Amino acid sequence: MAVADPSYNHVNTSSDEEDDAGEKITNSPDNAKSMGSPSSHKQNGTAVNHIDRYGFMGGSQYTNPDDEHRVPIEKLRQRELKWLEMFDDWEKWMSKRFKKIRDRCRKGIPPSLRSRAWQYLCGSKFLMEHNPGRFDEYLSQPGNPKWEDDITKDLHRQFPQHEMFNSKGGFGQEDLYRILKAYTIHNPREGYCQAQAPIAAVLLMHMPAEQAFWCLVSICEKYLQGYYSPGLEAVQVDGDVLFGLLKKTQPAVYKHIKKQQIAPILYMTEWFMCLFTRTLPWSTVLRVWDMFFCEGIKVIFRVALVLFKMVFGDGGNFKDCPTLYETLEKLRHIPVQHLDEELMVQETLRLNINERDMEKEHQKQIHRRKKEKTKKGGKQKS
Fold it and tell me: Assign residue 109 a region: left if phi > 0, alpha if psi is -120 to 50, beta otherwise?
């Protein structure tokens, strides 16, 4: 379980403590992102869909510009200047003022600097600088035909309503293929896993292919180590950890899921392996990624625990979940008003759980699995 910061204190994400501007973003759930098809207008007699500021033309990721949060321009400029100051002396900030970086990530990285910030935070900038020409070298090598075929089959499934990926053979799909193929050369033991594709696609929305590749390497080998290996054992362990943390934070929900014998792998696999790109409104995805790149996998655990709270409430409302089917449907179709970016961030910071709890639960699950394997091995010998 990758970790980054030992403390996880509450911070007001909607305003800067050192900003002169006192203006705040409205946090009301009524201002949540609209999820649906955009309006269209006529251009030369043809209906043309509006493209939102993230590049989506429709679908569940589309954000209605009339309903989204907007940071006041003066505040945004102040935040940009602060990030530029940090970039100028990044090692010093990371070693001596990490909590300030963490707090600024929780408030949301300015869109104009998000690509650069992600690369600094995850260390991919360092990787790329110390491996010049390696990406092109990977692309020049023959790949595994099976993995290449699987990648090709998956290209059209990655955000088809986004302007970068809506054309077969377009530059977006071509770059996505190159990144995923290069990773199979870089790490042939893991090869290609379907869940890597949406992550690589999100990175491509923010940066050129070579930069996106090294970001993907960092995510797979530093943040989600072992997640994409055959057997998915690391994911299964973290599913058990999540279930254990659920028992601590929301015992009623834990009892309900345990009673219905719902294995964690049935509801958390897509959340964790795709980093919520298939689950949350797009602005919320980006806010979660801002924190994830800074603080590691614990952010993903916290978001998952908040989703349970949003679905079932504090006390646990299970009247319309009599069977496993209804429970899973509720977890897979969470009302968008519960997924507002500011609401989600604040709820993750309010959780009564810390890094020590996560590490303790992780060690407990590792020990349990070792014990079960030993027991199973003893039975086979006898």
Answer: beta
- Report how far residue 57's alpha carbon sits from residue 163's, in angstroms, rounded to the nearest whole number: 7
212: its two tokens: 């996106």
Which residue carries 């795709």 as its tokens? 274
How far, rounded to the nearest angstrom, does the alpha carbon of residue 154 sit from its chain's CA centroid?
A: 19
The helix or strand, by DSSP H or E, that contains position 345, with its residue range, turns out to be helix 341-350
- Both structure tokens of 346: 């604040």
Q: Give 279's contacts (C-beta < 8 A, 6+ positions apart).
A: 270, 271, 307, 334
Q: How far apart are CA 40 and CA 46, in angstroms?
A: 10
Q: What is the DSSP string of 60-128?
A: TT---TTTS----HHHHHHHHHHHHHHHHTHHHHHHH-HHHHHHHHHH---GGGHHHHHHHHHTHHHHH
235/270 Cα distance (integer angstroms): 10
As a whole number of angstroms, the distance between CA 141 and CA 370 comes to 39
Mean pLDDT, each 10-residue run in order, the chain (382 residues): 42 47 37 46 49 91 84 94 97 96 97 98 97 97 95 96 93 97 96 96 98 98 94 93 95 95 94 96 96 97 96 84 94 90 95 92 92 73 56
Residue 365: name the closest of 256, 275, 264, 292 by CA.
264
Report the phi/psi class of residue 169: left, alpha or beta, with left for phi > 0 and alpha for psi in -120 to 50.
left
